[in-house]
Structure formats: C-alpha cells, structure tokens
Amino acid sequence: AVEKDTRLVCVLNDNGFAISPGFGALHEALQDAERAEDLFGALGYHYIGPVDGHDLEDLIGAFEEARGSEEVPIVHVKTTKGHGWPAAQDHPYRQHFSFPFDVDSGKPREAVPQVTYPTVAAAEIGRAMEADDDIVCITPSTLYATGLDRVFERFPERTFDPGMEEQHAMTLTVGLALGGLKPVIAYQSTFMQRAFDQLIHDVCFMNRPTLLLSFRSGFAGYDNPTHHGVYDFSYLRCLPNLRVLYPKDAFEARRMVRDELAELNGPTLILMPYGPIEEHEPAAELEPRSTFAQAQLCKQGRDLVLVCVGHKFAAAQEACAELERGGLEPGLINLRVLQPLDCDHLVEALRPYERVVTLEEAVIEGGVGSAVSDLVHDHDLGCEVLRLGLPRGFIEPGSAEELASAYGLDARGVLEAIRERWTDLA
C-alpha cells in the first residue's frame, strides 16, 4: 500500500464464504461499508465499494475508478456463491467441491457414501469428549470434509475453527496441549501440507500429547491434482517424535482413535483415505492393545509376502486370493503403524521370505516401500523387494477405482507387476 504507480488492482470477491460460511472480526467488518472503508483506508489503500459483482455496469465503473487511482485500490465486490444456478445457490456448502453430478438438479450421479472414515472418527471423538472434559477439537474450516459438524454443535465451548489458517490451527493445538488439554486436530491431507513448519517446530519439537487426523490420504477424487494426499508419508517419515498410523477399515479406525484418546502420550497422526469405508475385521476392536499396536500378520505364506498400507488391503487381499488359485502360497501383512515401523515383529515376519512386495497409494520415493527396503537392508534379510506405488508427479482427478487401475494399484495391477518381476511365478 505504500508503493505508488504499481498499476495493481486488488479485488476482494466477498461472498460471505470461504468453504464454510464466514465468521470472525474481519468477516463482520466487511458487512458494513463504512467499517470496511475505515479498515482498508487505515492501511493506506483506496477502498472502492461495495460493488454488485453481478452487475456488469457497476463493475466496469468500479474498475475505471480503480484504474485512475494514485494509490493501490481495493475493489470490494459483493457476490452470491453459486449465483445463477439454483442447485449451487441452495447448497453453496455442498457444491463447493466437484464430483460427477446432474447439471439440472445438482444431484450426484453416483451414490454418496453415508458412512466414511471422517464420520466414524467423529463419532468416536464425540464419545470421548462426553467422557473426558479435557478433550478439545480443532479444524481449519473444513467441517464438511472432516465429519465434525455434529461434534462442533454439541461442544461449542471445546471446539475451535480458526478459519482457513492451517498453520495457526496447528500451533493453537500445541498451545492447548501445553495448557493441559488433550487436543484433536483434523485436516484434509492436502491442506495439512501447508502447516509443515508448525508440525516440525511446534508439534514434534514440543512433543506434547496431540492427536492429528488427516483425511483424504491417497487418491482424493475429482477435485483436482492438488488435492490428492499422495505425498504424506514421504514428507512425514523423517520427523522425530511423530507416530503415524493407518487403519485398513472401520474397526481399526475406531480402535485407533479410541486408544489414542485414552492414552495420549505424544504427537500421533492417523491417516485415513477418501470415499466409502471398508469393514474387514470386527475383531480389531477387541484385540489386546499390545498386539494391535504391531504390524498385523494376516496370512502366513511361503512364496512371497505382500506388505500393504491400510487402504490397499482389499487389493492386496484379492491379489493373494488370485495367487492362491494359481497354486502359490502368499503371505499378507497389514502395517497399521507406518512410523516408527514395528521393526522387531516386522523383521521376524519377513525373515522366511525371499520375495517381498510393498503396496501403497502414495508416491513411491521415500514412501512405505522405501522404509521396508531400508529395514530389509539394515537387518541383512537378503530378500528381494518389489515396491508398488505412484510415480513422482501430479495425479489427475478421478475415482479411486479409475486411478488405481490406471496406475497398477488394484489387484490386477499388483498381479501383473509380480509376474513381470518374477516370471517363475507366472
């Protein structure tokens, strides 16, 4: 604002929303033209507005005024989110994100799952908050994606939405922990990346009891390439004091959230995928904690063993069944704990095998496959490791099924990769 002759025009498109409805002091100031002009004028800007963003003549007049300004102008444009399309105007919250839908009605063409990882986790958080007044919950303005709407309604004094300020939300979490509370913070995977500095220097360095939930890990649907959570483990793996868990189904997700909130000792992150939740093994909810915190040997084999991250369990299981039909005896391991790896049990589980296959819905460089390869090397296990994952790059939008097929991460792709690597198993 102190610069002259920049020929820069700032446009504030004010529709009252971020993703969720707006709130807070700045939001309130923007509702009053005099207050908004005072605010921006005090900062040295030339305030123009408010302008009807759906009136072309008003807009042209405002931009002509802005073009002639000697100061940096801010054109305050008032718009209606979803304007011109009733399906979006009636549901600006839901229509914010993209999925295949009917243009006339706005209704999705595919069935929308009613039970997802966020809804399961949120229900467990709600139960824990009923029993323990020290548990508080934070999310940076993505309630619809984190399933926490009901929790925020029930516990308004113990829930915090700092707006779309991922960095501040992460540090706020540590502050609450330092105050003796038990904070739970929920992100979408792609947005948690924005708070990487705070995750290192606040959460991990302070090493306080904190539960982090990160949803949409792996393929994240139709939004765009920036929303896939395929870099999670590659950038999280090096951080000290951080435990990283990954459930394979609803039962493990409930158990992980419940166990961590019952005995939260330091920073723990639970990654969870997008889409409908799977239900493989009800016994996980009753399993002793001592064994539940270990890598799970689901099936003992002889010829090779598949080591998978939770959301690829179904594909690994299907691939194992097909290998068995071909006369082979594959083993199957569900990692559960990605960091730190359950080295002792994992080494013993891998020792009988000459061939190990790792499967993850993430960039392969620096991922789970790399961690397992390091383990094999460091303990001189002498087995060959085939790592299956994604190339380093940006992944196009699409359904989980479409993308898994395209990148060879479904059962068929796993089998083809195994047979190509080890022709004697074909």
Task: Provide the fold topology.
Layout: E1 10-14, H1 25-29, H2 33-42, E2 46-52, H3 56-67, E3 73-78, H4 86-90, H5 117-131, E4 135-138, H6 143-146, H7 149-154, E5 159-160, H8 166-178, E6 182-188, H9 189-192, H10 196-206, E7 210-217, H11 232-236, E8 243-245, H12 250-262, E9 267-273, H13 289-292, E10 296-299, E11 304-308, H14 313-325, E12 330-334, E13 337-339, H15 343-350, E14 355-363, H16 368-378, E15 384-390, H17 400-406, H18 411-421
Parallel strand pairs: 1-3, 2-3, 4-5, 4-6, 6-7, 7-9, 8-9, 11-12, 11-14, 14-15
Antiparallel strand pairs: 8-13, 10-12
Radius of gyration: 25 Å
Strand order, biggest sheet?
A: 5-4-6-7-9-8-13
**Count of helix runs:** 18
Low-confidence stretches: none
Distance between the termini: 68 Å
Helical content band: 25-40%
Query: Beta-strand percentage?
Result: 15-25%
How would you state the average pLDDT, rounded? 91
Brief write-up:
With 426 residues, the protein is of the alpha/beta class.
Describe the structure.
The protein is of the alpha/beta class. It has helices at residues 25-29, 33-42, 56-67, 86-90, 117-131, 143-146, 149-154, 166-178, 189-192, 196-206, 232-236, 250-262, 289-292, 313-325, 343-350, 368-378, 400-406, 411-421; strands at 10-14, 46-52, 73-78, 135-138, 159-160, 182-188, 210-217, 243-245, 267-273, 296-299, 304-308, 330-334, 337-339, 355-363, 384-390. The strands form 3 sheets. It has a 7-stranded mixed β-sheet, sandwiched between helices. Helix 12 (250-262) links the parallel strand 8 and strand 9. The longest helix has 15 residues, at 117-131.
